[in-house]
Amino acid sequence: MFPYIELGLIKLPTYLLMFLIGYALMVCWARKIAVKYEYPKEDIFYLSLYGGIGILIGAKVMYFISKLPIIIPKFDLYIKYWKVNPIGAFNFSFGGLVFYGGLIGAVVGAYMYCRQYKMPFAPLLDIFAPLIPFVHGMGRIGCFLGGCCYGKEYHGFGSVQFPENDLVPVLDDVPRIPVQLIEASLNFVIAFVLYRLMKCGKMKLGQLMGIYLVYYTIIRFLMEMMRGDSIRGNVGGISTSQIISILLIPIGIVLVHGKWLAKRQENS
Q: Cα 110–117–62 angle (5° rounding)?
């Protein structure tokens, strides 16, 4: 387990390193795919900067939202915590990242770039459809190395016993489901499938992103049942990520249908 990589005086979180590697590869890959969609590959780099900012803001905001079920019932104590220990309160409120928030933030960032520079937005959905799960899979490997997003206690085949970890003291108590590696593998599988579908050239505009959304929302809903941490918060026993999964499935189904986005593109 390697939660950090030391670079001189700098400690770089392994999750961040894996994500940055995946994001850099995604940008290079997207520039090549953009040619197929007659999209200016020169814009991909600058668009990815907007998307990267959106990822950071969206992931942090969604993390804060996931904390609201804890904050609202004890709002007075929460305000006092900010006064007594602002650094601790900030880390509690914004110290983590939520994937769905980052995904939504990336879409908003890309859309803002397209609006600002009058670029078509719809082709980006298919350009990045196989790339999003690839980057996510890289990030989940980083989660496994860092010890976050860990699974429930499990003593059967394939269980993982993490070493002692000061950042997550309970992590080494029992063997656990390697949920990070399972999710990473499933992300890589859908990335490969979507890329092959893209290469066949028979998909309607938006269908690739629709397939990804339907696939991943179902997978994520099930993966949440294997998670042993409660960092994402929950409402009535359903985690924040499961609620978002339920809300995103209809959007994926509409995109898979393939006609709505195509008509909008024709009318634009």
A: 20
What mean pLDDT is reported for the chain? Answer: 89
Tens digit of pLDDT for each residue in 85-113? 999 999 899 988 889 999 999 999 999 99
Six token digits for residue 159: 């269980």
* pTM, 2 dp: 0.89
DSSP 13-50: EHHHHHHHHHHHHHHHHHHHHHHHTT--HHHHHHHHHH
The reported pLDDT for the residue numbered 234 is: 66
Go through 135-167 and write b for each residue having 16 or more CB atoms within 10 A of its CB, e for each that does not: bbbbbbbbbbbbbbbbbeebeeeeebebeebee
Residues 6+ apart with CB under 8 A from 181: 140, 141, 144
β-strands 10-13, 234-235 pairing: unpaired
Enumerate the β-bridge partners of residue 12: 5
DSSP conformation class of 163:
P
How many Cα atoms are found within 13 Å in the side-chain-facing hemisphere of 98?
28
d(CA 114, CA 82): 38
Asked if 129 and 212 count as a contact pair (C-beta separation under 8 A), the reply is yes
The predicted structure's pLDDT at residue 172: 83
Asked if 197 contacts 208 with a C-beta cutoff of 8 angstroms, the reply is yes
Residue 268 has pLDDT above 60, yes or no: no
List phi, psi (to 5°) of 230: -125, 25
**Tokens coding 60:** 């942090």
Percent of the chain with pLDDT over 70: 93
